[in-house]
Amino acid sequence: MLNRIRIVLCTTTHPGNIGAAARAIKTMGLSRLVLVTPRLFPDHQATAMASGADDVLASAVVCASLAEALEGTVLAVGVTARRRDLSHRMVSVRDMALEAVHELSQGDVALVFGTEMAGLSNAELDACQLLANIPAEPDFSSLNLAASVQVVAYELRQAFLQDKGEVAREFPPATHEELEHFYQHLERVLRVIKYLDPENPRRLMIRLRRLFSRSRLERDEVSILRGILKALHPADEGSSRPL
Amino acid sequence: MLNRIRIVLCTTTHPGNIGAAARAIKTMGLSRLVLVTPRLFPDHQATAMASGADDVLASAVVCASLAEALEGTVLAVGVTARRRDLSHRMVSVRDMALEAVHELSQGDVALVFGTEMAGLSNAELDACQLLANIPAEPDFSSLNLAASVQVVAYELRQAFLQDKGEVAREFPPATHEELEHFYQHLERVLRVIKYLDPENPRRLMIRLRRLFSRSRLERDEVSILRGILKALHPADEGSSRPL
Predict the structure, then answer these.
(1) A-to-B residue pairs, Cβ atoms closer than 8 angstroms
(2) Distance from CA of B168 to the nearest CA of A (A)
(3) Domain A2-162 maps to which CATH number in 3.60.40.10, 2.102.30.10, 3.40.1280.10, 3.40.630.10?
(4) Beta bridge partner(s), residue A9
């Protein structure tokens, strides 16, 4: 089941950190590393720091975008050191791990890490349904990237070992693509009805995304919402694409 | 209270790991790094990897022996990835953290880490009263040194934050020096009474140390034991040193 967890590293600067992350996840029984536009990979520094986790590096998937990295996931969690001025739901990595492991019965779960210097961008955060925080010293809260990956992988393993196999969610959650198609559909309709002004969008779509993210939409709920959108604007050509 | 925790690194090979460990502990609000015979320190790689935790490096204490590093501690915990063929008590780092934080009201607590390649030696383990294990994948259980320090410091911080201030131990535990004086006294007496053959000591003292380590001796109990030893062999000149 731990093989359903993707560790997604966004735009990593130092290849040594990729190798150290590979080692970190392998010690905890995870194996899937996904690299979004890494600056340098493969690289000998990555191999040196992997220190035996060569198999994880060899099977790492390089993606051109975070959206590609998240394809098919049922939960994407952004890992962040800072409190964010957001309406995203934010939990500790310990609580996140329990939730994430529980979700594995439904499909793949992604843990998303930002760059070494700046963490996750707001656009990257918006692709996540949940934020997880490593409780740290407020004045010095920035863990090394591989150290963050180690703590998160550690918590996932501990949660997995203690998971009592509670009853799985009754209804399947929407996948990343289903959610994205919904947001695109929603935005088109909002433009058509002139609620969203393309010249002055403000933060409308971002706020709507966050609102829906917190609710962890189920697949059937997305169908219902898209049904409503279609009813609002039946001529929308994009709404005919499959759900 | 977290300032009472010493992170003790034994014979570290790579100075970069010392710097990364300094950063790791600072993110969790710890500050005391103790280095037992590091191969290279100070060093620019340590400073580079500390990444802002220069104060922790600057105040790091370098010791010539583990015994010196443990002076004045009331609990020394050996961190080990492997199961050991020992009669030491071994717990998970999560359970250890709860115990260790609880002990801080009594005095300093040390977390002892071995070398990058081989971990803690048996002699180093014998100086500890408790072993703590990071639950990892059995086939690939060796975390990077700084990653281990990060997980341990993380668990200590979480335990500290959730510590409900239970009633402190009623009686003060013995310090490292009190225990060592007791073991020396015991060994002298065992030789005198010819229970211990210096030509063929087998593992007698090691087994006795482990036995007493598990019981977490209190100061008064050590006084009682030394009183017994003195009564057994009143002429022992070493027994007159202060407890």
Answers:
(1) 83
(2) 25
(3) 3.40.1280.10
(4) A35, A113
pLDDT band at A168 (very low <50, low <70, confident <90, very high): very low
Is domain B176-240 in CATH 1.10.8.590, yes or no? yes
Give the Cα separation of B8 and B33 in Å (integer): 6
Residues of chain A with C-beta less than 8 angstroms from the C-beta of B137: 26-29, 157
Residue of B nearest to A20 (CA): B144
pTM of the model: 0.79
Q: ipTM of this predicted complex?
A: 0.77
Query: Looking at beta carbons, which residues of chain B come within 8 Å of A23?
Result: 143-144, 147
CB contact (8 A) between residue A134 and residue B146: no
Q: Are B13 and B45 in contact (CB under 8 A)?
A: no
pLDDT digits (tens, 9 = 90+) for B182-208: 999 999 988 887 888 888 887 788 878
**What are the tens digits of pLDDT across the range B130-166?**
999 999 998 999 899 999 999 999 999 999 988 654 4
Judging by beta carbons within 10 Å of its beta carbon (0-12, 13-18, 19+), is residue B142 exposed, middle or buried?
Answer: buried
